[in-house]
Design goal:
The chain is of the alpha+beta class and 160 residues long. The strands form two sheets. The chain has a four-stranded antiparallel β-sheet, with no helix packed on it. The chain has a two-stranded antiparallel sheet with strand order 1-2. β4 and β5 form a beta hairpin.
Length: 160
């Protein structure tokens, strides 16, 4: 009995709101007081925009011998620039991690390790690192403590 009451109440609210919409539309059809929606203009790419600095895309050497990579900014002035898929922040277990942080110990397990990185369009892992698949992203981490060296969006797998 309770379900039937809820169903009828929901249907009544739905039909009541639809009749109000029809009434409001009929009232507004004869008047021109409603302004037309604003026009959205497409921004033209700026051909004179400054090119990204080459120093931002170079990597820096850390004290443990692992080279973390800093993602380069894509050139937005070129219309057909392919995406880079680089990640600067990674969300793991509802916590934000950055390059250089250490992943939780459980993600060093073999179940998260990617061995066929070529099939997923990932670059070759550096010495003493491996690729892990965590929260739909690919993360290059060190073998010993799980320090994040690089992050790639999971969309790289579907790259054409």
């Amino acid at each position: 009995m309770r379900r039937i009451q809820i169903t009828f109440l929901s249907a009544g609210l739905l039909f009541g709101s639809l009749s109000l919409l029809n009434t409001a539309q009929a009232a507004n059809e004869g008047t021109d007081t409603v302004p037309p929606p604003p026009q959205i203009q497409q921004a033209e790419p700026d051909t004179n925009a400054a090119q990204p600095d080459a120093s931002t895309s170079q990597s820096s050497q850390s004290n443990d011998g692992i080279t973390p990579t800093t993602p380069a900014r894509p050139d937005t002035s070129a219309p057909n620039t392919p995406p880079t898929y680089d990640l600067t922040t990674i969300i793991i277990d509802y916590k934000e991690y950055k390059i250089g942080d250490t992943v939780p110990q459980q993600y060093l397990d073999k179940t998260y390790t990617i061995t066929e990185w070529q099939k997923r369009n990932l670059p070759a892992p550096q010495e003493n690192t491996h690729w892990a698949y965590i929260n739909a992203n690919y993360i290059l981490i060190t073998n010993d403590v799980g320090k994040i060296v690089m992050g790639k969006s999971g969309d790289i797998f579907f790259r054409g």
